[in-house]
Amino acid sequence: MFQSEYLEMMTKTHPVVIYSLYLPILIFLLYYGYTYKSLATSSILLFFLLGIFAWTFVEYVLHRFIFHFVSENPRLKKVVYKLHGIHHEYPRDRERLFMPPVPSLVVASFFFGLQYLLMGWHVLAFFPGFLFGYLLYGSMHYAIHAFSPPSYLKALWRNHHLHHYKYPDQGFGVSSVLWDHIFGTIPPRK
Q1: Residue 173 to residues 78, 158, 188: CA-CA distances in angstroms?
Q2: Among candidates 101, 69, 132, which has minimal Cα distance to 140?
Q3: Domain total for the chain?
Q4: What is the pTM of this model?
Q5: pLDDT (tens digit, 9 = 90+) per residue, 16-51?
Q6: Domain range enclosing 120
Q7: How many CB atoms lie within 10 A of CB 59?
Q8: Fewest C-beta atoms under 10 Å: which of 92, 112, 132, 136?
Q9: What is the pLDDT of residues 96-145, one digit of tens each?
Q10: Are 149 and 164 in contact (CB under 8 A)?
């Protein structure tokens, strides 16, 4: 992707790096919300589950409208290619299936700030659910590209592989096909 060996190294990451980065944050935020902001257990559970659900929608929107953005502008084409096009060109590159830590933290901070503005301290339960949704997505995406699918992932595997190899304008959900069903972007069954 880059001429610089250092920049090239920064575009790659292993899932363990992302888990070790976000799991402690996720746990800390839940603990802090419960202990210091007196969020009720039922509220934490509800907002956590809503965060996971919200992630599936954000995943779909980002994948469909940002990562597959079509433009005639050469600079914008290059940005979109570096964001996601390289993944379509080399879908089996295991080191580029998770977003690297630095840009990932920038994006996560943006979402945390936005969610805090929308829901106040409930973000301490919602954002960990959102992060957990991201980790589930990343884990499924990694499994889909790196291994033969277990039976419970076959529908997601099929959907994502059709997106990569036959219908790039369909099948945008990775961790869920819900939004593909709702917005009519499920790849044909044949």
Answers
A1: 23, 11, 14
A2: 132
A3: 1
A4: 0.89
A5: 888 999 999 999 999 999 999 999 999 999 999 999
A6: 5-183
A7: 22
A8: 92
A9: 566 778 888 999 999 999 999 999 999 999 999 999 999 998 888 888 87
A10: no
